[in-house]
């Protein structure tokens, strides 16, 4: 064991802070990924509890706990489960595709505690009355894949997964599946397409809400890795205890990855709604201040797709219901901090380039729009920008996401926030996400863009 | 190059059997082909089309959507250097330029000795450990340019036995013994599990039949 409030060397980046641990309790153990360690620390106790109860009872416990999805949208798992029509077969697909810029938590959960995740999957399958679960791990995560493969092999052999689980008649298969590099596959309908062996392009919702028409057009629940990792603890300790952590609207904890210009970047499990961004960035048990004592310039509160926050938002609590009205989202728990030395145009371009590269190409506003956003930003950065380029950027944004785009407010200039989420002309939210860095950066740091754009050169009469 | 060899064909059939529909196995099978040859060969795709019962064009369609599948040989070690925001803020782009200079190649190219291919990649989920790189999808964290040089010279000196050659991902495969399998059926055949039906709340006594 290591002392508290320190990096845990074998779990790169994870900081064991002093708060309560729901999903990271095994991380301090070097062998946290093994069945031996899992069993020595209460592993599969949650499954044993669940299987003694009726599936409806287990689903009720999850609903009571108000377990908000940890994959990005923050929808309550219990309510989503309730959307499934009484149709069989039905499937559970676990979203382990983690690729949102700045996000680093699901990989830790898969590498460091695969048994917790597998146990969570089996509990969810039991509650949903289904016997087929696919665990979709991002292609690039070789170690997560081998840890889960080993854990599944061990769990099958020990009777926690497969035929006659724990000696009962309950039989559930959990199959490891892995991707091959495409951010868009994290979107749930694209994940399903990919799991059907196709190109990972999203389906239109409605009608293709996975709970009704998902894998093979059958009812399918897609849940994030962290969401399901909460279930073993929840079964053992109950919804009431769960709700003693975090806030009323967002009970429990979240894993947050704080990266960029802070003194101690790291992945922290924190109670939702209790700490603020200021606590996280400057607190002794968290990031211990901005790098080199610099000033904060901007931060991304919830992954590359989230509109940026600034010093005005430092005292907002880490809670979806607080962050949304302030103009952004908590998304996937990815916080990226930019200090005063940051080249904002470069940062903005880098995020936009991500969306341009990752657009699946299915809808025109996203496919063409993201490519043009990148091109225009690149020429501004290269010193070839045109005076009308900033307006052009915002206009392209309008074709992907019409109306006023969500942004943070700032008091100095009497600007009010525009609440999340944005509107979209596209099939999925990837296209609109590309507008977030542009709108945020241009509104707040317009002069930095303008400084790069040469004044119009009026050619003299050359005669 | 080639179709799947006999051992891999057996493995492919085991993988296909884990899915309600064979085509679902396509991505894992394309990885298997890449593991065998270091890239996804055309003949291997034809073979996969036969194995899962789809047209070869569908296999090609799936293959070309995903960045990890290479249709031509690449270096023995792929160096994925992240330049997305967290890495950009902490020196990822400088690291990429250093790699280009030291190896004398641009992203996508193979070094003269056939050992390395560099890629300028998107976020690889190690943001707190930026700047970071994957070598054949295994991580190097908080990497300085000196650290990078060390990784390269260690690989050249044959000291990195922990790194499988390009194409191999997880070193452990899932294997479900026949007697442990709950049972996988096609979506057309599968129904409500018996254990679920028997665990429904008792029907309301006063209610109708
Ligand atoms: C472009 C895009 C990428 C996404 N990527 C991921 C991802 O990598 N992992 C994830 O869990 N959810 C991702 N999501 C959200 C999923 O669509 C889905 O909402 C989530 O997996 C549901 O799980 P939860 O309810 O447990 O949060 C993404 C959504 C979009 C639009
Ligand atoms: S918005 Fe972009 S990524 Fe999403 S479906 Fe349309 S083209 Fe594909």
Provide a brief overview of the structure.
By secondary structure, chain A is α/β, with parallel strands linked by helices. Chain A is 37% helix and 11% strand. Chain A has a 4-stranded parallel sheet with strand order 5-4-3-6, with helices on both faces. A 4-stranded mixed sheet of chain A has the order 8-7-10-9, with no helix packed on it. In chain A, strands 1-2 form a two-stranded antiparallel sheet.
Structural account:
The complex is a heterodimer of chains A (463) and B (209). With 463 residues, chain A is of the alpha/beta class. Chain A folds into 3 domains: 35-242, 3-Layer(aba) Sandwich (Rossmann fold); 253-339, Ubiquitin-like (UB roll) (Roll), CATH 3.10.20.600; 351-462, NADH-ubiquinone oxidoreductase 51kDa subunit, iron-sulphur binding domain (de novo design (two linked rop proteins)), CATH 1.20.1440.230. Chain A is built from 17 helices and 10 strands. In chain A, helix 13 (344-358) packs antiparallel against helix 14 (364-381) and helix 13 packs antiparallel against helix 17. Chain A is globular. Chain A starts with 5 loop residues before the first strand and ends in a 13-residue tail after the last helix. The relative contact order of chain A is 0.12. The mean pLDDT of chain A is 96. Chain B is of the alpha+beta class and 209 residues long. Among the domains of chain B are: 6-71, Arc Repressor Mutant, subunit A (Orthogonal Bundle), CATH 1.10.10; 77-156, Glutaredoxin (3-Layer(aba) Sandwich). Helices cover 37% and strands 9% of the residues of chain B. Chain B is built from 8 helices and 4 strands. In chain B, strands 2-1-3-4 form a 4-stranded mixed sheet, covered by helices on one side. Chain B starts with 5 loop residues before the first helix and ends in a 12-residue tail after the last helix. The complex binds flavin mononucleotide and iron/sulfur cluster. The site of iron/sulfur cluster has 14 residues of chain A, from helix 14 and helix 16.
């Amino acid at each position: 064991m290591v002392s508290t409030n320190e990096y845990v060397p074998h779990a790169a980046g994870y900081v064991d802070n002093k708060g309560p641990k729901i999903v990271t309790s095994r991380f301090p153990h070097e062998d946290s990924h093994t069945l031996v360690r899992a069993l020595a620390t209460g592993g599969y106790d949650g499954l044993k509890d669940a299987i003694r109860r009726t599936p409806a009872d287990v689903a009720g416990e999850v609903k009571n706990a108000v377990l908000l999805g940890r994959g990005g949208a923050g929808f309550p798992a219990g309510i989503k489960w309730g959307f499934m029509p009484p149709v069989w077969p039905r499937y559970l697909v676990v979203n382990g595709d983690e690729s949102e810029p700045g996000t680093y938590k699901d990989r830790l959960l898969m590498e460091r505690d695969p048994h917790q995740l597998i146990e969570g999957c089996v509990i969810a399958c039991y509650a949903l009355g289904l016997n087929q679960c696919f665990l979709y791990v991002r292609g690039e995560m070789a170690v997560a894949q081998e840890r889960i493969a080993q854990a599944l092999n061990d769990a099958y052999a020990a009777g926690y997964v497969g035929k006659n689980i724990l000696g009962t008649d309950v039989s559930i298969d959990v199959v490891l599946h892995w991707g091959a590099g495409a951010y868009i596959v994290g979107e749930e309908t694209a994940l399903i397409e990919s799991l059907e062996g196709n190109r990972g392009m999203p389906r239109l919702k409605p009608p293709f809400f996975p709970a009704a028409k998902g894998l093979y057009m059958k009812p399918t629940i897609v849940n994030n890795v962290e969401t399901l990792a909460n279930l073993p603890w929840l079964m053992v300790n109950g919804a009431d205890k769960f709700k003693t952590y975090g806030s009323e609207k967002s009970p429990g904890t979240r894993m947050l990855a704080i990266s960029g210009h802070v003194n101690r970047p790291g992945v922290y499990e924190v109670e939702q709604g209790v700490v603020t961004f200021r606590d996280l960035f400057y607190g002794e048990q968290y990031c211990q201040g901005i790098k080199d004592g610099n000033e904060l310039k901007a931060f991304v509160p919830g992954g590359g797709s989230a509109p940026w926050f600034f010093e005005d938002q430092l005292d907002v609590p880490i809670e979806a219901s607080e962050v949304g009205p302030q103009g952004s989202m908590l998304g996937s728990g990815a916080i990226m901090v930019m200090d005063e030395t940051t080249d904002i145009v470069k940062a903005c371009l880098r995020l936009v380039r991500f969306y341009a590269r990752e657009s699946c190409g299915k809808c025109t506003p996203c496919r063409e729009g993201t490519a043009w956003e990148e091109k225009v930003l690149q020429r501004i950065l290269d010193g070839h920008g045109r005076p009308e380029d900033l307006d052009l950027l915002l206009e392209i944004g309008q074709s992907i996401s019409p109306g006023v785009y969500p942004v943070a407010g700032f008091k100095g200039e009497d600007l009010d926030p525009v609440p999340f989420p944005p509107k979209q002309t596209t099939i999925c939210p990837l296209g609109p996400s590309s507008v977030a860095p542009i709108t945020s950066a241009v509104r707040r740091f317009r002069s930095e863009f303008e400084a790069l754009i040469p004044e119009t050169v009026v050619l003299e009469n050359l005669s | 190059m080639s179709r799947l060899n006999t051992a891999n064909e057996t493995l492919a059939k085991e993988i296909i059997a884990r899915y309600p529909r064979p085509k679902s196995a396509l991505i894992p099978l394309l990885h298997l082909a890449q593991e065998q040859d270091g890239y996804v060969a055309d003949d291997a795709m034809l073979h996969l089309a036969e194995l899962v019962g789809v047209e070869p064009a569908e296999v090609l369609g799936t293959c070309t959507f995903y960045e990890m599948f290479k249709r031509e040989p690449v270096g023995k070690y792929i160096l994925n250097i992240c330049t997305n925001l967290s890495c950009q803020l902490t020196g990822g782009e400088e690291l990429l330029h250093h790699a280009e200079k030291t190896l004398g190649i641009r992203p996508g190219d193979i070094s003269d000795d056939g050992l390395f291919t560099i890629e300028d990649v998107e976020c690889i989920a190690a943001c707190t450990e930026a700047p970071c790189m994957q070598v054949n999808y295994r991580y190097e964290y908080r990497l300085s340019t000196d650290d990078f040089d060390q990784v390269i010279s260690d690989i050249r000196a044959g000291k990195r036995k922990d790194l499988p050659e390009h194409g191999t991902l997880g070193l452990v495969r899932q294997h479900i013994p026949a007697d442990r399998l709950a049972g996988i059926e096609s979506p057309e055949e599968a129904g409500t599990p018996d254990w679920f039906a028997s665990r429904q709340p008792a029907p309301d006594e006063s209610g109708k039949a």
